């Protein structure tokens, strides 16, 4: 299927349309002698859901789905993913079009408020964000407590959580105005804090934001300028940075977004909830994969080593996985990965080495994997993290900053989902249940009747 129409505009990916007539209204569950009719709730796109909210009260049974592979944790109108077709929509707009024709602050507005802004709305939003980019001067002291070699993600978890100690006037989450203030402060300040974490790791002075620069240019300025000389932002790199932010802005109910929703469901401080999201994103199975993917490509080093690593990725006894490959939802090419691959080529052509050996290793690794039965059978394709590391390294960032950049961009997605959850009048605290397979009830055992030696304790009995 051609991916673009005559003037090169990406075609609207084929939306999923369901035949309403064949979609049933209820699901029937039979347990022993009992039958339960469960309502089916209809999606505008993608799978409908079986509503099991009353199943336990009616049947005494829980459902069991540890990784949420078949469970919708909430209703949302923000982002849609079709993993089979490799489709990603932010409020209905294809990621390919937003990355091609939009910019990150416009995408923030879209994710937060549900549609693209008018010129006046965009102007007001930009002014609001631009004038909140500075952080309280005392925030600087938090950094001093860290060793210079502290991982920037560890610093980000701490300093973003520390914002909850500074902003008491935007933490009454039931006040829409205060939610708005917290929203704009978070989006405005996250680049400043990310740049401070980077500067601190270098031992260089923090650089204040500038109101005359756009969001991505300001971030590059805060990261790469030094007091000793003039720093001019390269517009090609600023555009690439902005596009990378768009690609990472939101992604439905991924692990870190679900973390923010669960933390926020108790009514916790919004800045603390975002800090929880940063902590979850850090894992190598999630946002940490961009750092891990580049480390993997550097470890592979040359195309000649690819077969050895492919074999390791397939070996059940070897914990090694191809970082940047596979996805819980995408069973097709991650649409963001294609755009990221193109962005890598643009950035390398502008500042790096268009023949960067790592890009060649990545290309050949991708081709080998995509033609290997193991990966084909499991529908493992490159995800957004596979090419992002090469791009971010070419932009001048160290590997340790890669997940910080992901967190910076995803902050708007976390906030959009937090707002959607808090504004829901039917909001409940998230409190999953469990399948308990531990010891049945038993009486306390006095010390005199327990074993005497090491390893004889009752806890060692299976
Ligand atoms: C992100 O959720 C999101 O939306 C996340 C994200 C976002 O924008 O928020 O898209 C960002 O986190 C992207 C994913 C980045 N992570 C990685 O690239 C790490 C490497 N990928 C894997 O760890 C894995 O693919 C996951 C964690 C991403 C998904 O794992 P699943 O869905 O739980 O699948 P699984 O672990 O059950 O794997 C299914 C099979 C297994 O083999 P079998 O047991 O069936 O024989 O596929 C194998 C796995 O061993 N497999 C891999 C593999 N990924 C899965 N084998 C080798 N290399 C891999 N990368």
What does this structure look like?
The chain is mainly α and 462 residues long. Helices cover 47% and strands 6% of the residues. The strands form 2 sheets. A 3-stranded antiparallel sheet has the order 1-2-3. Strands 4-5-6 form a 3-stranded antiparallel sheet. The protein is globular. The termini are far apart. Residues 67, 251, 254, 285-287, 289, 313, 321-329, 378, 380, 383-385 line the site of s-citryldethia Coenzyme A. S-citryldethia Coenzyme A (SDX) is lined by residues 67, 251, 254, 285-287, 289, 313, 321-329, 378, 380, 383-385.
Q: What's the helix-strand series? A: EEEHEEEHHHHHHHHHHHHHHHHH
Number of helices: 18
Note the quaternary state here. Answer: single chain
Q: Strands of the largest sheet, in order across it?
A: 1-2-3
Task: Bin the strand percentage.
Answer: 5-15%
Counting DSSP E segments of at least 2 residues, the number of strands comes to 6
Mean pLDDT reading: 92
Q: Bound small molecules, which ones? A: s-citryldethia Coenzyme A
Radius of gyration over C-alpha positions, nearest whole angstrom? 24 Å
Sequence stretches where pLDDT stays below 50 over 5 or more residues? 1-17
Structural class: mainly alpha
Distance between the termini: 57 Å
| Secondary structure: helix percent | 40-55%
**What general form does the structure show?**
globular
Largest sheet, in brief, is: 3 strands, antiparallel
């Amino acid at each position: 299927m051609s991916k673009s129409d005559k003037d090169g505009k990406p075609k609207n990916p084929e939306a999923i349309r369901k035949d309403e007539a064949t979609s049933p209204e209820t699901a029937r569950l039979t347990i022993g002698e009992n039958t339960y009719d469960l309502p089916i709730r209809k999606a505008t796109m993608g799978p409908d859901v079986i509503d099991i909210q009353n199943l336990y009260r009616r049947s005494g049974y829980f459902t069991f789905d540890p990784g949420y592979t078949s469970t919708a944790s909430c209703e949302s109108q923000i982002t849609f993913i079709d993993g089979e077709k490799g489709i990603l929509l932010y409020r209905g707009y294809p990621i390919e079009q937003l990355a091609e024709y939009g910019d990150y602050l416009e995408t923030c507005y879209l994710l937060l408020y549900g549609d693209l802004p008018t010129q006046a709305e965009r102007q007001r939003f930009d002014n609001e964000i631009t004038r909140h980019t500075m952080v309280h001067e005392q925030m600087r002291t938090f950094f001093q407590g860290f060793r210079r070699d502290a991982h920037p993600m560890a610093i980000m978890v701490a300093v973003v959580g520390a914002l909850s100690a500074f902003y008491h006037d935007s933490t009454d989450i039931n006040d829409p105005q205060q939610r708005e203030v917290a929203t704009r402060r978070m989006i405005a300040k996250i680049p400043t804090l990310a740049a401070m974490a980077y500067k601190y790791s270098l031992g260089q002075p923090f650089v204040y934001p500038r109101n005359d620069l756009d969001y991505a240019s300001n971030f590059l300025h805060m990261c790469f300028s030094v007091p000793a000389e003039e720093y001019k932002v390269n517009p090609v790199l600023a555009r690439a940075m902005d596009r990378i932010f768009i690609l990472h802005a939101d992604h439905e109910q991924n692990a870190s977004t679900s973390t923010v929703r669960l933390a926020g469901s108790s009514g916790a401080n919004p800045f603390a909830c975002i800090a929880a999201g940063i902590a979850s994103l850090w894992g190598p199975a999630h946002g940490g994969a961009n750092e891990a993917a580049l480390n993997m490509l550097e470890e592979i080093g040359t195309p000649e080593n690819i077969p050895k690593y492919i074999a390791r990725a397939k070996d059940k006894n070897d914990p090694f996985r191809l970082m940047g490959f596979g996805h819980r939802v995408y069973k097709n090419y991650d649409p963001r990965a294609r755009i990221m691959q193109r962005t890598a080529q643009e950035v390398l052509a502008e500042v790096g080495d268009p023949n960067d050996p790592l890009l060649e290793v990545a290309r050949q690794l991708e081709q080998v994997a995509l033609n290997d039965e193991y990966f084909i059978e499991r529908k493992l394709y490159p995800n957004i993290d596979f090419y992002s590391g090469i791009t971010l390294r070419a932009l001048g960032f160290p590997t340790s900053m890669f997940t910080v950049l992901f967190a910076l961009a995803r902050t708007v997605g976390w906030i959009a989902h937090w707002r959607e959850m808090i504004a829901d009048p039917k909001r409940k605290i998230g409190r999953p249940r469990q399948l308990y397979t531990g010891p049945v009830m038993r009486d306390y055992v006095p010390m005199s009747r327990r074993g005497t030696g090491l390893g004889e304790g009752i806890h060692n009995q299976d």
